[in-house]
Design goal:
The structure holds 3 protein chains of 3 kinds. Chain A is mainly alpha-helical. Chain A is built from 11 helices and no strands. Chain A has one domain: MetI-like fold (Orthogonal Bundle). Chain A is about 75% helix and about 0% strand. The longest helix of chain A has about 30 residues. The radius of gyration of chain A is 23 Å and the shape is globular. Chain A starts with 13 loop residues before the first helix and ends with a helix. Chain B is about 25% helix and about 35% strand. In chain B, strands 6-7-8-3-9-10 form a 6-stranded mixed beta sheet, sandwiched between helices. A 5-stranded antiparallel beta sheet of chain B has the order 13-12-11-14-20. A 5-stranded antiparallel beta sheet of chain B has the order 15-19-16-17-18, with no helix packed on it. Helix content of chain C is about 75%, strand content about 5%. In chain C, the strands form 2 sheets. A two-stranded antiparallel sheet of chain C has the order 1-2. Chain C has a two-stranded antiparallel sheet with strand order 3-4. By secondary structure, chain C is mostly helical. In chain C, α3 runs antiparallel to α10. Chain C has 13 helices and 4 strands. The chains are: A mainly alpha, B alpha+beta, C mainly alpha. At the A-C interface, α1, α3, α4, α5 and α6 of A face α1, α3, α4, α5 and α8 of C.
Chain lengths: ~270, ~350, ~300
């Protein structure tokens, strides 16, 4: 006869709930991906397997245009935010706490605390004024808006890495005749690098995913992939949206897996 | 004169915190460390020994006072400009560099030619017997091997002084013994001045040419291991190094009366009045009966300790002391608890303390 | 301190500020500064074709809850606005409660896996977390729309003959928000449970506690900081949600976020939009302050 063993960490119904949650999390995503291979014109009826929507999306100039713009914005925003976040992380760690440090923390984390829609309308107003006064147009507005809200995401992993870093290593470098710059170049930066890459990847994904702030700061003809999709959802739905979503999803998973491996390997 | 000294600290004070919260980690410490000697700073944790080391290395600046290196004032010189290297307690090996790259780091930072760097690294690898490990990452090494890399890295630039901050504390007992003789060998071979920080009195006694005992931010006594052990100046030094007994005594300037009974000539310059003397347990001699000229004592307890027998004794004036006697072959106690015995001391073994 | 020590300390502080400056400049120009313009705009009068007229007016703030009668210029409660506020708060609370109810067992499940598979389970929660919000909202749409997976399956099974009308209702927005914000609840809960010392359970069972008593009297009080963090992380973005109600609510079941958007679009009432934005910001800040207070109290109690 089987004996039911008592496990202290088991709570009634928890495992079942967890399994249902994981199914519920992935079922919609899998459905979305499945429908991207639907041969039927309508999203409603399954018409057999086909790559048509991927081909269609690939040949859609508006999609291509939005994709290139999304990537351009994400790369620029990631580079800018990672650069300034790295500097800020170096400035706010590994030195004695100073007056104003809390202010810097609050400033850096501000984008995490303010609802996106609020930031979005504030930038809409600001950029409207600037455009009217200077007449300057262009994608720069969106890039800097993205760079700003990406800063906390880039900052957190870099700061975590710095805080986990043995300060004695820099002392040791100074002891071995390294100037402050040489210490940074030969010791701090190489050890910090995984954190910087992780921060840049997070910033990149966050920028790529943004809908609300982009929607409010873009000018006509500056659609990114998410705002293009949002616009399409208002019109008729075709499995082309599913195909685009699936590709974006695949890109996210690839980046995340890389991030996951990168941060784990260096523990 | 100071040219003979490798390092000299003059009235070094280091305070942490400000105002009423300020803690003086170093409180007016002056010390001269001679060229080529193995000098140990010994004391319990928080006594200021590591702070003094960090002032010499340049990681901290003194609140007041001066640090001299071969007679030159280096008090405010940054660490990368001082020909002084450190072996860190945690080793602080660069995790992203190989063993050879770690050892060559200091030379590269100094901008030495590649060939010279390589030659020195090879020489250092041979010196610490790690030739086979040159290409390894430091995380792949054992604790003892990491320790040797840290040593080689600090020795590679041929510093004038090598600072060692409790470098053996992370090693197990067997490895620590090995490294002690290894360090001694390296010091003799290189002729470099070693300043070694430890809280382990045995380590200090076996390795050092001279020891500076520190407590509460002050240097208590400087001397050879023998001087420190046999002639402690004060209660702290006497009790921190080895086991000891404190016995009250009175002095009239020429004669010392110990524990109200035992008389002996007082050492020169002994002040008159009540003093404290210290005597090591192994210098306490016992006779089976309280004969005249001995201090009568009652045996309170007997502890068998292998090579020695330890007796706890109660003197007539109420003082408790310990005596350590080599066991006889049978391991039987010669004296039993409750027995009255006579106590004498090895001539010259009594040390009158300053406080 | 000696002069040299002081100089060194001052240098360290100066470097701290200097290194932080580029980030602070970008954040001031593109995150914090613009909020001040919103404050100014909330006190101006609406322009006829959008934007504002530069004259002082409190109508923006008044318009949050009150509406001016067209005929006699008296103010009455704006029912539509109240409905939107109520919906936002109701749906946000429901979302928080539901995500906690299912998120806690999930976090517990992950935290009690063996070390090796735990990383994988955690990764499975993280993927949706980092997946585009729009895509996740659209994925829920795929399930609950009239011809979606749910209705198709139910009809095929013969359980219903007509599709359930879920899409474009409050329920749709609720399901959508719970779906997209669930990882935000699970991750901090996991972090708290992961730190939980499972030996405490042995102690509790040893002292005759039942499973429910262990949960209520031991586990929940200890992981409370994680519960508060998760609740804030779900409640705050729910309250300011824009994409999910827009896609799943079909433009009718508006929440505050969409209402703000409306003022800058068809509503042509920028001051009201600005005042609404600030109201949202104030509610969110209040929630965060409560969180900080509780979090700090828990820390101080812990020692």
């Amino acid at each position: 006869m089987a004996i039911k063993t008592f496990s202290v960490s088991t709570l009634p119904g928890f495992t079942a709930t967890a399994v249902i949650v994981f199914v519920a999390l992935y079922l919609p995503i899998l459905t979305l991906v499945a429908y991207s291979f639907n041969a039927s014109q309508s999203v409603a009826i399954w018409g057999g397997f086909s790559w048509d929507w991927y081909i269609k999306a690939w040949n859609n100039d508006a999609v291509k245009d939005a994709t290139v713009r999304s990537l351009l914005i994400a790369v620029c925003a990631a580079v800018i935010s990672t650069a300034v976040a790295t500097m800020a992380a170096l400035g706010t760690t590994r030195r004695k706490a100073f007056k104003g440090q809390t202010f810097i923390y609050v400033m850096i984390n501000q984008p995490l605390m303010v609802p996106e829609i609020v930031t979005a309308v504030s930038l809409l107003i600001l950029f409207g004024m600037v455009k009217q006064v200077t007449g300057i147009q262009g994608i720069g507005y969106v890039i800097f808006a993205h760079a700003a809200f990406c800063i906390p995401f880039a900052y957190l992993p870099i700061r975590a890495r710095l805080e986990g870093m043995d300060l004695t290593l820099e002392t040791a470098a100074a002891d071995l005749y390294a100037s402050p710059w040489q210490t940074f170049r030969h010791v701090t930066l190489p050890i910090l690098l995984p954190g910087v890459i992780a921060g840049a990847m997070l910033a990149f994904v966050i920028s790529l995913d943004d809908v609300v702030i982009t929607e409010f700061t873009k000018s006509g003809g500056q659609d990114t992939l998410p705002t293009y999709m949002l616009g399409q959802m208002r019109r008729q739905l075709t499995p082309e949206i599913n195909a685009i979503s699936s590709m974006l999803l695949a890109l996210t998973i690839v980046l995340l897996t890389a991030f996951f491996l990168l941060t784990r390997k260096n523990d | 004169m100071s040219q003979l000294n490798a390092v000299e600290a003059r009235h070094a004070v280091k305070a942490f915190g400000q105002g009423d919260n300020a803690v003086r980690a170093l409180n007016d410490v002056s010390v001269e460390i001679r060229k080529g000697e193995f000098f140990t700073l010994l004391g319990p944790s928080g006594c200021g020994k590591t702070t003094l080391l960090r002032l010499i290395a340049g990681f901290e600046m003194p609140t007041s006072g001066t640090i001299l290196l071969e007679g030159a004032d280096i008090t405010y010189l940054p660490p990368n400009k001082r020909p002084v290297n450190t072996v860190f307690q945690s080793y602080a090996l660069f995790p992203h560099l190989t063993v050879a790259q770690n050892i060559g780091f200091g030379l590269e930072m100094q901008g030495r030619p590649k060939a010279e760097v390589k030659a020195t690294v090879d020489r250092m690898l041979a010196l610490v017997k790690l030739e086979a490990m040159a290409g390894r990452k430091t995380s792949q090494l054992s604790g003892g091997q990491q320790q040797r890399v840290a040593l080689a890295r600090a020795l590679a630039p041929s510093p004038k002084v090598l600072l060692l901050d409790e470098p053996l504390s992370a090693l197990d007992l067997k490895l620590r013994r090995e490294m002690q003789s290894e360090l001694k060998r390296l010091q003799t071979e290189t002729g470099i001045t070693f300043i070694f920080v430890t809280h382990d009195q045995e380590e200090a006694l076996t390795m050092s040419d001279r020891i500076g005992v520190m407590s509460a931010g002050k240097l208590q006594q400087v001397g050879t291991p023998r001087e420190i052990y046999t002639r402690p100046l004060n209660r702290f030094v006497a009790s921190f190094i080895g086991e000891t007994n404190f016995v009250p005594a009175t002095s009239d300037g020429s004669t010392l009366t110990v524990a109200g009974g035992y008389q002996m000539p007082a050492p020169a310059a002994t002040k008159s009045g009540a003093v404290t003397v210290t005597v090591r347990p192994e210098q306490v001699k016992l006779t089976p009966t309280a004969e005249p000229g001995t201090l009568p004592a009652t045996v309170r307890g007997v502890v068998y300790m292998g090579t020695d027998m330890n007796y706890q004794l109660h003197l007539a004036d109420g003082t408790e002391i310990e005596a350590c006697v080599v066991s006889d072959v049978t391991g039987e106690a010669a004296l039993a608890a409750g027995q009255t015995v006579g106590v004498t001391f090895t001539p010259g073994s009594l040390q009158v303390l300053e406080d | 301190m000696s002069a040299a020590e002081e100089a060194q300390a001052a240098q360290s502080v100066r470097n701290g500020w200097l290194l932080s400056t580029p980030a602070l400049v970008i954040l001031t120009l593109f995150a914090v500064g613009p909020l001040l313009i919103v404050v100014v705009y909330s006190f101006l009068a609406p322009g006829q074709y959008g934007n504002v007229e530069w004259k002082l007016s409190l109508d923006g703030w008044r318009g949050i809850l009150w509406t001016k009668d067209i005929f006699d210029d008296t103010y009455g409660l704006a029912d539509a606005n109240v409905t939107i506020f109520w919906r936002s708060i109701k749906l946000s609370i429901l979302t928080t409660v539901l995500t906690f109810a299912v998120g806690f067992p999930t976090a517990w499940f992950i935290a009690t896996r063996p070390a090796k598979s735990r990383a994988l389970w955690l990764f499975l929660i993280t993927i949706p977390f980092w997946t585009n919000l729009l895509i996740r909202t659209y994925a829920i749409n795929e399930v609950i729309r009239n011809e979606g997976l749910l209705n198709t399956v139910l009809i095929k099974l013969g359980l219903i003959s007509e599709p359930l009308r879920i899409i474009y209702t409050d329920t749709a927005v609720f399901i959508g928000m719970a779906y997209v914000y669930l990882p935000l609840m699970v991750l901090p809960l996991f972090a708290a449970i992961d730190r939980f010392d499972m030996r405490l359970l042995e102690a509790a069972y040893d002292l005759y506690a039942s499973r429910m008593q262990v949960l209520r009297r031991v586990i929940l009080p200890i992981v409370k900081p994680g519960i508060i963090a998760g609740s804030i992380l779900v409640f705050v973005p729910s309250l300011g949600a824009y994409v999910t109600p827009r896609v799943l609510g079909g433009g009718k079941q508006m929440m505050i976020g969409n209402f703000i958007d409306l003022q800058f679009g068809q509503g042509r009432n920028w001051p009201l939009g600005a005042a609404l934005s600030l109201t949202l910001l104030i509610i969110v800040t209040a929630a965060l302050l409560i969180y900080v207070k509780y979090a700090n109290r828990d820390v101080s109690n812990g020692h």
